[in-house]
Amino acid sequence: MRVEGHVEAGGGSEADGRAMAEVMAKELALKGIDPKAISVVGLGATRPLADAAADPTDNRRVEIYLLPPG
Question: CATH homologous superfamily of domain 2-65?
Answer without folding.
Answer: OmpA-like domain (3.30.1330.60)
